[in-house]
Amino acid sequence: MRQSPDEFLPPELALRVEALNNAPQRAGADYVLVWLQQSLRGDDHPVIDAASVLANRLGLPVLVYHGLRCDYPYASARLSRFILGASAAMGRSLRSRGIACRQFVQQGPDHGRGLVYRLASKAAAVFVDQHFTFVPATQPGSFAGRAGVAVYAVDAARVVPVRALPARVGTTAAFRRAHSTLRHDWLAMRCPIQPEQRTVPANLPGELVELADHDETALDRLVAGLPIDQTLGSVAEHPATAEAASARLAGVDAQFVRQYSAKRTNPALAEGTSRLSPYLRFGMIAPWQVMARVEALDVTASQRYKFYDELLTWREWSHWRAWRNPEIHRYAHLAAWARETLDAHRADPREPVLSLAEIMHARTPDRVWNAAQAQWLLTGWMHNNLRMYWSKGLLRWAPDPETAWAWGCYINDRVSIDGRDPATYVSMRWGFGDARPAWKETPVYGRLMRASTAAMMKRDGVADFVDHWTARLLPEIDLASFDREYYV
Ligand SMILES: Cc1cc2nc3c(=O)[nH]c(=O)nc-3n(C[C@H](O)[C@H](O)[C@H](O)COP(=O)(O)OP(=O)(O)OC[C@H]3O[C@@H](n4cnc5c(N)ncnc54)[C@H](O)[C@@H]3O)c2cc1C
What we know:
By secondary structure, the protein is an alpha/beta fold. Among the domains are: 222-324, Serine Threonine Protein Phosphatase 5, Tetratricopeptide repeat; 331-487, DNA Cyclobutane Dipyrimidine Photolyase, subunit A, domain 3 (Orthogonal Bundle), CATH 1.10.579. The chain is 47% helix and 7% strand. A six-stranded mixed beta sheet has the order 1-6-5-2-3-4, sandwiched between helices. Helix 4 (77-96) links the parallel strand 3 (62-68) and strand 4. Helix 7 (172-189) crosses helix 13 and helix 17 (384-397) crosses helix 19. The two termini are 41 Å apart. The structure holds flavin-adenine dinucleotide. Flavin-adenine dinucleotide binds next to helix 11, helix 13, helix 17 and helix 19.
């Protein structure tokens, strides 16, 4: 019979956990399996905590598993290098805690066939991290249907688990109110759990590796040999190392928080924002670790308000919306008024129509837009204000609004280290009508707000920023993976 999470977990952890099937826990198992999708961190991890509680109860070790497939959508040297760096750092952190961690790096189509099912066949139960967009939104569910053992999904990417929030919050303001009353309680409830020291059996599948033993050069070599998109290269600006993640977190100091609301809108200021998003996206840092750090700073509630509003309200509101709407990445799910007004202007002349290749390689008539795209293409990260400007620009050059949306999501998902996230689609929706309508109807945009180039150029340093990024040589990116239908 199925064991529900509240039968074996403390209440604050049980609320983070959802049983994904009706299968029972297995007796006589070798370990409790943690299969991580994207929350790649070795410490302070609710998925590992939940597995540890069960493992301690059953007298079993915990085995943490993470796999990287070369046929994963948009698998590129950029994303694979970041993911493997995060996974290796996680392996080292788990090793220091005495927890076994094994990885799998797929080298070709048949390599490692059925591996996670083979691992699950020796497990008392499987715990996965829960996400609401892209592959991790559906993969654990289909796995649970065939695993033949209890599978539990753990909400490990948000301070306040989605199920702890009211079921109906219709606006950002309502979400902000609900979340604000819960976030400090959930921060206080975080209580990492250590599994008892037990050894996993030696006869694990031969395809498994221990990335903890790989240094940065070995990871570079491993990625260079994979049959994945190598046109989109790895980036030096956001290293996936424990040291880089700690340095980003340390950058959130009292001065940063006090100046955040004044500096965050200028893309020319390299440290006006935290640049934490790649590390949050892959779980190298948990949002409550950022919150705990801010709580310890000498800042007032009003000084930290704006930073919390982005990190806690906007980020977790995006996640909540993606949880409620699994089709949030689709044009068809944009606001009806926005689709209607864009449809009414479908035949308006564009400025001019460009191809996806011209867009991807920053060959538009707008130098600010090109600078933004170049920064994204070359570094895998773009400033929020530029992303806002960038998303609006797509409508000027795409043949129709659906294609503009699909290009935007595709480039974001493919190029940005933090892409494929609820914040990706919810933020893109801002550019496509999830905002106040314009007071005046304009060509192409209808009642959607346009972005102002003049306003962007007025900010200190933006002219130099544009010169810098438009002068850079861009790599030629293979665009064969574009699938318009996925986003429409
Ligand atoms: C068109 C468009 C596309 C975007 N795509 C993504 C994406 O793919 N992935 C992504 O994580 N964010 C995305 N954002 C939101 C935002 O731009 C980035 O989170 C932010 O720029 C990351 O930089 P930072 O870490 O320095 O943020 P900071 O300003 O330092 O904020 C701290 C954290 O709060 C969160 N956050 C900040 N702004 C937002 C926001 N508007 N919505 C939701 N969460 C936010 C992020 O996790 C961020 O790391 C997008 C925004 C737009 C307008």
